[in-house]
Amino acid sequence: MRRKLFFWELGGFLFTGALGTLLHFVYEWSGGSALAAWFSAVNESTWEHMKLLFVPLFLFSVAQVCLLGRNYPNLLAVRALSTLTGAALIPVLFYTYTGILGYHITWVNISIFFAADLAAFALDFALLRRGRLSSRWMQLLGLALLWGLAFCFVWCTFRPVHLPLWQDPVTGAYGIP
Length: 177
Prior knowledge:
Layout: H1 2-29, H2 34-39, H3 46-68, H4 75-101, H5 106-130, H6 136-158
């Protein structure tokens, strides 16, 4: 069972990395479609890069719940926690290194995305194996948190908060250009 879980988590890491990278360009490729804005990055803000991690993680979670949910009764709570951890690592690492250097480097930004992806699935793997966080209320809380994050990522694309997390460092704009 542990080996099977490892391959699921490895697949999730690869899926999230590949789809997140692809979603970076979908809004532009769609000609600025409002529908594409729901799930892809509309600018270079840190928030939109967090969305690039969240959307594939969320989609993978749906598949994993359908196919593995009975084997891992703690899946929703664990995925919510690992998703929050991965998403939080993006601004923490980005603002830490840019605060030290005073500028950003593209390859470091890309590395941060993949490090956050890896951290999310490594935490996921560790917590799923332990079987903790499996009470019913934790699963409901995990489900609510994942759907709440989905709502926030869509809402803040169209109605961004005017804070640096939502500001495009290239154009200085917020949300959809």
